[in-house]
Specification:
With 136 residues, this protein is an alpha+beta fold. The protein is 68% helix and 17% strand. The protein is rod-shaped, with a radius of gyration of 38 Å.
Amino acid sequence: MTDFRSRHIMRRKATMRALRERDRRRAVAVGVVLTGALAAGILSGAYFARSMATARAVSHSAFLAQAEELRTGTILFVPLEGNVCRQRVIDNATWRMADAGSVACDEAVSWNASAPGQKYFVAVRVDAIRSGFRAK
C-alpha cells in the first residue's frame, strides 16, 4: 500500500508541477498582452494629443490673423453732395484716428461688397469692440 500511495503522491506532484508551469505560461502571456495594450494606448494617446495641439496651434494662428485684421478699422465720411468721401482709420487698441485721405465714394463702398461672409463681418467687429471694453 505504501507503493501505491507513493506513486499517487508522485503523480500528484507531477500534475501540480505541470499545472504551475501552465499557469506560469498563461500569466506571462497575459502580462505580454496587457503590456502591449498599455503601450498601444500610450502611443495612440500621444498621437491624439499631438494632433490636438497642432489643431489648436492652427486655430490660434487663424484667431491671431483675424484679430490683427480687426485691430484697425476704416470709417468713411460721406458728403452731402458729390462723390468724394473722406476716409479715416481708427486703431481699436488706442482709439486714435488718423486721416487716410479722400477716396471716390463708389469705390470705397463697393470694395468688399462681394466678399464671402459679409453678413457676419459686422457681428465679428461688434464682438471685437465689445470684448475690448470688457477687458478694460
